[in-house]
């Protein structure tokens, strides 16, 4: 219940004061009285009345000064002041308003008019109080929300920045609060030293848009670190988002798998605007089109993980962008659009400057801060220029056994839909001594596996990959043959033995293919530096020993390591 | 923003008309357009002739309609799509989920 | 009587003040004496501003008490004080004192009827 309205009457004439106090009191209000301005402000400070009826001319301190001070004390709260006056000069009336007076009432008093004015002023006062209350409530809510966003961002930054967005081959532009625009950028080294990159854009804005970012990042980083492939990671991200997000919330995304050794990039785009692969040598621009529905819409059974593969050379650049780039608006409401973007590409002379030229074109066009624009440039680097990120393990690995062997045979149905590499790697990395060369092991396993599968089991001819057109042809053929595979196998034999105080791992890979002329193959690889030759050359460089079965149907590689040191002076990955 | 809906004479089809910006601001109105009708149509038509703009939230709303209309079995046509609207739908490959005309 | 003290205003005041009506009358009389005294002092000191303020305040309470002639005399005094020309003030002040003497008599008789 609202407390009784309390009204202060400041009037020096005792008869007028008495009369007015009686009228106002009879109307049901609580009345305080003061005989001059100074008494009035003291009374106000003590009793905080809701409204003041103020005579203008009073001894000691007049009504104007008292009104000014009372308004000051009231602050944001509205304390209506009604001047009691028979003032007739305009100047004096203006003065009443200037010191903050809200209304006048003339003598002689009319109780009906007086009551109407008091009621009107009370409505105004309550309205102001409500406005202030709501403003403060909104401010508190907003503060609360901003604080939640800060916490969410801090947590998210920890997850997002465990990746390698700062690698020297990546440039990006993103608002610090992009998370709340639903924009997401992720990059992580693969165990093999290549890199996965993702640009995502969730539907909507604010927390609902940010909510899916966390599970997406976890799947991305977790599976990349374990050596899963692009397609497997995409499948899992899609399934996870489909499972946890409400209908109508999804993530447009483009994901890249860059392989620095094989010099290829795999691209999957679901719902983001065209990205571009720009050739360093020719300036040719290949659009990276969206060919899929965004992540989180389709059931796992319908999800399409087909991606495109492009050969990449040093100097080639990939540009990825969110729709915020194309939808950036100027004051006239025009969109930046694809046309303007392609114009910047066309005018570019120095490829190194292209990224900043796009940024400049955008800010020149918009003339303001770009807070919902995400733009990314990724290029290929020579193997070795990028740091191999050390793999992170949750256990110490002290207890692993060093003397065992195990064999696997993966047959056609499995080869079609299962990538055995992460499992093999997990197994090997149980051994602490192997952890420091985890990425080397992964690279070698991956090369041996793809050789066995593509050339052995499926009989693909690697010489096709000599030029870019043949390259595309090769991967089309690979897809077709894999889909139709009905027999064949790939076998892995892993053998781990202690040797002196150190140890030795041998990996033997066999396949069901017809075998090949080992000698001829090695000679050819020694000569040519074409697209097909890098894999085996790399294996020979990375392994301590490498030998082929005489019939060309199997290969054996070995890794040795010296006596175990104290954990304190354990050899680092660079040695 | 004004969204209206009109069932066909036999009640088998519901047409939803979009006027102006089709974005998150239209969320409730769009839902009302198919939830607050007395018919249970077999087919839905979204007429985008009056739509000046469409964003990813609008795509989300279309997915909600698809869910409401039976998900995989939903029969939804998007008609009178301007080239701009068509482009947005095609970047997201929504032609896999809706008949676009 | 009505040109000195308006009976309809007195009726209204009686209604509003109820038991405190006599007290209001007493208060008005003593206050008015003080005001007239202040006017006389300001006049003797040739202080136009003090004269104006006193006349203005007195005018307000006279109007509230329903004394139209006295109210009008206060208004003229206030006006005159504002012009700064104090010569006609002596006459106006004398008239006001005379008018108040009448009002005092009327109020005192009113007071008799409401002890």
Please provide a written account of the structure:
- The complex is a heterotrimer of chains A (575), B (101) and C (115).
- Helix content of chain A is 40%, strand content 21%.
- Chain A folds into three domains: 6-132, 3-Layer(aba) Sandwich (Rossmann fold), CATH 3.40.50.2300; 161-379, PPM-type phosphatase domain (Phosphatase 2c, domain 1, 4-Layer Sandwich); 404-569, 2-Layer Sandwich (Heat Shock Protein 90), CATH 3.30.565.
- Chain A has helices at residues 14-26, 37-47, 63-74, 90-98, 111-160, 206-210, 213-225, 230-244, 323-327, 337-347, 354-366, 412-417, 421-428, 432-435, 438-457, 468-483, 518-527, 534-542, and strands spanning 6-10, 30-34, 51-55, 81-84, 103-105, 170-173, 183-189, 195-202, 251-259, 264-270, 275-278, 285-288, 308-311, 317-321, 375-379, 404-411, 489-499, 502-511, 545-548, 554-561.
- Chain B has three helices and five strands; from the N terminus they run ββαβαβαβ.
- In chain B, helix 1 packs parallel to helix 2 (56-68).
- The longest helix of chain B has 13 residues, at 56-68.
- The two termini of chain B are 22 Å apart.
- The model of chain B has no long low-confidence stretch (mean pLDDT 89).
- With 115 residues, chain C is mainly alpha-helical.
- The chains are: A alpha+beta (575), B alpha/beta (101), C mainly alpha (115).
- Chain B: Residues 14-101 form the STAS domain.
- Chain B: InterPro entries: STAS_dom (IPR002645), STAS_dom_sf (IPR036513).
- Chain B: This is STAS domain-containing protein.
- Chain A: The modification 4-aspartylphosphate is found at residue 55.
């Amino acid at each position: 219940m609202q407390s009784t309205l309390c009204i202060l009457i400041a009037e020096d004439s005792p008869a007028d004061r008495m009369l007015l106090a009686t009228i106002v009191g009879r109307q049901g209000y609580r009345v305080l009285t003061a005989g001059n301005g100074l008494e009035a402000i003291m009374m106000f400070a003590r009793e905080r009345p809701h409204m003041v009826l103020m005579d203008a001319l009073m001894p000691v301190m007049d009504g104007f000064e008292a009104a000014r001070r009372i308004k000051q004390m009231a602050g944001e709260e509205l304390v209506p002041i009604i001047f009691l006056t028979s003032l007739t000069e305009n100047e004096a009336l203006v003065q009443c308003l200037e010191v903050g007076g809200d209304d006048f009432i003339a003598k002689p008093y009319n109780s009906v008019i007086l009551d109407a004015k008091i009621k009107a002023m009370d409505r105004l006062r309550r309205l102001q109080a409500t406005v202030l209350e709501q403003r403060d409530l909104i401010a508190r809510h907003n503060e609360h929300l901003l604080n939640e966003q800060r916490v969410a961002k801090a947590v998210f930054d920890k997850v997002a920045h465990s990746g390698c967005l700062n690698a020297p081959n990546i440039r990006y532009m993103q608002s610090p609060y992009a998370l709340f625009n639903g924009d997401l950028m992720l990059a992580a080294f693969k165990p093999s030293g290549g890199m996965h990159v993702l640009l995502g854009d969730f539907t909507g804005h604010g927390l609902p848009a940010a909510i899916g970012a966390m599970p997406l990042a976890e799947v991305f980083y977790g599976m990349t670190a374990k050596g899963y492939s692009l397609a497997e990671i995409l499948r899992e991200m899609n399934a996870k988002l489909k499972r946890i997000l409400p209908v109508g919330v999804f993530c447009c995304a483009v994901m890249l798998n860059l392989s620095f050794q094989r010099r290829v990039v795999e691209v999957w785009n679901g719902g983001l605007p065209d990205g571009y692969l720009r050739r360093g040598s020719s300036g040719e621009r290949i659009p990276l089109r969206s060919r899929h529905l965004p992540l989180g819409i389709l059931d796992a059974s319908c999800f399409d993980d087909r991606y495109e593969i492009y050969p990449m050379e040093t100097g080639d650049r990939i540009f990825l962008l969110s729709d915020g780039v194309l939808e950036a608006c100027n004051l006239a409401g025009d969109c930046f659009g694809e046309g303007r973007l392609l114009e910047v590409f066309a005018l570019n002379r120095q490829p190194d400057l292209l990224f900043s030229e796009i940024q400049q074109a955008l800010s020149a066009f918009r003339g303001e801060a770009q807070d919902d624009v995400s733009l990314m440039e990724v290029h290929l680097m020579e193997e070795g220029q990028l740091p191999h990120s050390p793999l992170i393990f949750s256990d110490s690995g002290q207890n692993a056994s060093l003397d065992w062997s195990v064999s696997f045979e993966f047959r056609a149905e499995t080869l079609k839909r299962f990538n055995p590499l992460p499992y093999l790697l997990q197994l090997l990395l149980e051994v602490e001594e192997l952890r420091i060369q985890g990425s080397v092991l992964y690279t070698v396993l991956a090369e041996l596996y793809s050789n066995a599968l593509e050339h052995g089991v499926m009989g693909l001819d690697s010489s096709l990959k000599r030029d870019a057109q043949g390259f595309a042809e090769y991967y089309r053929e690979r897809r077709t043959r894999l889909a139709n595979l009905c027999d064949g196998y790939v076998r892995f034999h892993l053998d781990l033995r202690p040797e002196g105080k150190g140890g030795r791992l041998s990996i033997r890979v066999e396949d069901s293919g017809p075998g090949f002329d080992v000698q001829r193959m090695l000679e050819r690889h020694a000569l040519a530096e074409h697209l097909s030759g890098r894999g085996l050359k790399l294996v020979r460089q990375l392994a301590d020993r490498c030998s082929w079965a005489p019939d060309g149907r199997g290969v054996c590689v070995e890794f040795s390591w010296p006596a175990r040191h104290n954990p304190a002076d354990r050899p680092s990955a660079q040695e | 923003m004004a969204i209206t809906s009109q069932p066909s004479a036999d009640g088998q089809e519901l047409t939803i008309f979009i006027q102006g910006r089709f974005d998150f601001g239209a969320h409730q109105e769009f839902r009302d357009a198919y939830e607050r009708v007395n018919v249970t149509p077999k087919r839905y038509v979204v007429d985008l002739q009056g739509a000046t703009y469409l964003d990813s939230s609008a795509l989300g709303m279309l997915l909600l309609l698809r869910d409401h209309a039976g998900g995989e079995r939903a029969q939804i046509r998007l008609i009178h799509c301007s080239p701009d609207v068509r482009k947005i739908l095609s970047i997201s490959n929504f032609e896999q989920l809706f008949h676009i005309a | 009587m009505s040109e000195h003290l308006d009976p309809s205003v007195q009726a209204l005041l009686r209604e509003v003040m109820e038991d405190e009506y006599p007290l209001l009358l007493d208060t008005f009389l003593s206050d008015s004496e003080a005001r007239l005294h202040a006017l006389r002092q300001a006049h003797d000191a040739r202080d136009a501003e003090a004269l104006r303020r006193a006349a203005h305040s007195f005018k307000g309470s006279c109007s509230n008490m329903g004394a139209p002639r006295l109210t009008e005399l206060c208004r003229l005094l206030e006006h005159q004080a504002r012009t700064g020309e104090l010569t006609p003030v002596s006459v106006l002040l004398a008239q006001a004192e005379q008018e108040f003497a009448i009002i005092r008599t009327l109020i005192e008789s009113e007071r008799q009827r409401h002890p």
